[in-house]
Design a protein that fits this description.
By secondary structure, the chain is mainly α. The chain contains seven helices and no strands.
């Protein structure tokens, strides 16, 4: 049991971060081996990869309303996964604290796990301090208006500007996926190094 817990934490941490970010490393390797579809299934990246292109086809009043729905799904689902993943990375760092190895002659597994544990929750300040004031708040406010029956003309923002905001959100969301994916990669290097 003593040796199983650190391995379980590594596995949950790496796969959880990979799932959350979109860097579905094991599935990509399997897909290459089987010569099948190489797309990833990551949760955060999925909103940018599938949600944005689909919603971009809708009229803007429907787009902002459904963005609000999509946003709330992510807001309610991602944090619990991120907390579990960050805790697993932290536990893995604690377990590796006395490991004398240097991966690539440069960095200890402990340092990699600590960096991974910090990457995962970094999506919270990135979202709150950067995404929310520049794009999220505006799209969510318009989504609330549309939810109450406002038409595209009553949203107070032109269609072109709304679509540009939505496109910016897509890129910003990919950054969040990359932060979590970076955590998965760092932990994988620590585990395999």
């Amino acid at each position: 049991m003593g040796d199983q817990m650190p391995k379980a934490a590594q596995i949950v941490g790496i796969l959880g971060a990979a799932f959350l970010s979109g860097e579905d490393i094991p599935s990509q390797r399997l897909a290459r081996t089987c010569n099948t579809n190489k797309s990833t299934s990551g949760f955060i990246a999925c909103f940018s990869r599938a949600g944005v292109p689909t919603l971009s086809l809708a009229p803007v009043d429907i787009l902002v309303h459904e963005f609000k729905v999509m946003y709330n799904i992510g807001k309610s689902s991602s944090p619990p996964i991120a907390v579990v993943v960050a805790l697993c990375m932290g536990f893995s760092a604690y377990q590796a604290r006395s490991d004398p190895r240097l991966i690539g002659g440069l960095v200890s597994p402990f340092a990699l796990y600590v960096a991974a544990a910090l990457c995962i929750p970094s999506i919270v300040p990135y979202t709150g301090l950067y995404m929310h004031p520049t794009v999220n708040k505006k799209l969510l406010d318009m989504g609330a208006m549309a939810e109450k029956g406002a038409t595209a003309m009553e949203l107070g923002t032109g269609e072109k500007e709304i679509r540009e905001m939505f496109s910016r959100w897509k890129g910003m969301n990919y950054v969040r996926a990359a932060l979590v994916g970076g955590g998965a990669l760092l932990a994988a290097v620590a585990a395999l190094g």
